[in-house]
Amino acid sequence: MTPRAEAGIRHAIWAAVVSGAMNGRMLWWQDGYDQFEQADLCRHYQQAAAPAAAFVRGVDYTGSGPISCVLSAGVKGGVIGHDKVRLGWFRDVRCAPPDWPMPHCPGKP
């Protein structure tokens, strides 16, 4: 595990918030491979989803879908929503694996 892996985990969780996906924490990894390799992602990052879960608590995703947005050069992200709510997540493209080098990446030590 790289020292800044938590930044990647957190980005995956927030990206899942705006994608409608339920696998932001790599559940396939946690439920299978992690058990055999003992990487301990389940316990090491057990609180990583707490801020995102608190943020969306009570959000009604019914009728939500992708919403187009114009991204500036060097930015990745997305928006999901409907006529009453829109949720977006964006990050600097330089904040990428394996080191997640940007100082403003979530999970900064």
Question: Keywords for this structure?
Answer:
109 residues, alpha+beta, 3-stranded antiparallel sheet, 4 helices, 3 strands
Describe the fold and architecture.
The protein is α+β, with helices and mostly antiparallel strands. Helix content is 32%, strand content 16%. The chain is built from 4 helices and 3 strands. The chain has a 3-stranded antiparallel sheet with strand order 1-2-3, covered by helices on one side. The longest helix has 13 residues. The mean pLDDT is 75.
List the helices and strands and how they pair.
Blueprint: H1 5-17, H2 27-37, H3 41-44, H4 50-56, E1 65-67, E2 75-81, E3 86-92
Antiparallel strand pairs: 1-2, 2-3
Estimated structural class: alpha+beta
Q: What profile does the largest beta sheet have?
A: 3 strands, antiparallel
What's the total number of strands? Answer: 3
Estimate the mean pLDDT confidence: 75
> What's the multimeric state?
single chain
- The separation of the N and C termini measures 15 Å
Total helical elements: 4
Proportion in β-strands? 15-25%
Strand order of the largest sheet: 1-2-3
Q: Which of globular, elongated, flat, extended, rod-shaped describes the shape?
A: flat
> Which regions are unreliable across 5 or more consecutive residues at pLDDT < 50?
none
| Helical proportion, percent range | 25-40%
Q: H/E series, N to C?
A: HHHHEEE
